[in-house]
Amino acid sequence: MVLLAAAVCTHAGKAILSRQFVEMTRIRIEALLAAFPYLMTIGKQHTFVETDSIRYVYQPLGELLYMVLLTTKNSNILEDLETLRLFSQVIPKYCPVLEKSEISEHCFDLIFAFDEIVALGYREDVTPTQILTFTQMYSREEEEFRTKRRIQEREARAKGIKKARELQQARREAERSGNKMQAFSRTSSTPGSIIADTIVNPRTPKMAPIRPSSGTSSSRPKALKLHSRGKEVEDFVDKLKSEGETIIPAFVMRRGGSDTTTKTNVLLPSGDDECVQLCVKETMSLTCSRDGGLLNMEVLGKVTAQVTENNNRICLIINNNDKKGFELKTHPNIDKKLFTDESVIGLKNPENSFPLNQDVLLLKWRLQTTDKSLIPLTITCWPSEGVSGCDVIMEYELQEESLELNNVVISIPVPTGVAPVISDFDGECEHDRKQNLLMWRLPIIDANNMSGCLEFNINGQPDNFFPVNVSFVSKRNYCNVQVTKVIHVDGDTPVRFSSETSFVVDKYQIL
What we know:
CATH architecture of the domain at 3-136: 2-Layer Sandwich
Strand order of the largest sheet: 8-21-22-19-24-26-11-12-16-14
Number of helices: 8
CATH class of the domain at 3-136: Alpha Beta
Strand content: 35-45%
Low-confidence stretches: 180-230, 248-272
Radius of gyration: 33 Å
Distance between the termini: 69 Å
């Protein structure tokens, strides 16, 4: 037989998908399919219809579609019907719902499958299962290559972290020995002044570097420069700031200007490559009303593990000190009774082992509540209209003392074209003129820095300062669940492991 084309069309003859196996124009195939409905006889069951040169072999797909094969009249009708049956078996494997939208969505998958059935107009000797395998194009060699590359990247990342720590330790030793030059100096500024569109409170112990205001002589020593291009970069950055651009440095000095640096919104792994690598990740979505009520709070967390050694028959000892009412669930392959009775994560069959070099989800938890006592960080806004504009006081308070929040950014909307006059603040304040936001940045909020405030005056109405958005990252999770130990199933021998914990904000909004 010579198969000209295979198509899926509507009852009106409109083509949804068509694959031509011989040279045919689009206009020609559309004209043939448009004539197909007029050739059918109503009230009779047919499997094919013919014209002077074309034979249509068809079968209904669902209620609104047809699977149609276009062949020559001298083809074998029995082979045509067998080929049609194979096409009809393959389509549901890619489109469980036989509808127009579903066919369009998986059109390329179906075309690849059609090419496995017919080549140059002649049918191939294949089964639906073989077609599905061929189109998936699974390669064991490719999978092994990707696994090897992931291991190499992980090893390179661990070496980089180790080298960074060595350099950091060397800088500390150099500073203690008095060989390190002082790069930054502090200058005090009067309350409410704006320095290069970025304001830093001198009384705050944890803050970003301060640039002296224009017109004031600076007594700070100059740091060593390799060439004069550094001065050009500084001048260019100052010009951008004067034009209202927001410049966020890649690294920000922490803890009073010491050499301890932390990259923005990035939590480094807690250790080098170990036999077992654990990842504890939590995300929070929170919406509060401006009067302090909690509209909704949802916290999602999970623990994943990756085993990198062959002896991977292990158990994880969990320390569960949760008192907030989290709902914990283990993976279906984990022994739920063992976890409930002994707080141990192990496989249902102790003889089985964890997959090698693959991220495996072990445990997840969820909390959804409207109890405002569970809010980790409360933000309160006190706007009041006065004679010279609107006086606004923003306050924050850490309610969960065990948390340490890093890189906290509180974004406050302000009216367009009006600059706020800031009188008092903790941390760092910055007016983003393009986005009309007042960015209140706090490097760290913990048990030693649990509360703070920001006061400013601006022309506007109380409703102009909402919604307030908050973002932060933390290396401590909100749900007090930790992996304390990893052991082998046989003999309770300890296994070296590393753990990376992150607690981030998906949405934190005060409406």
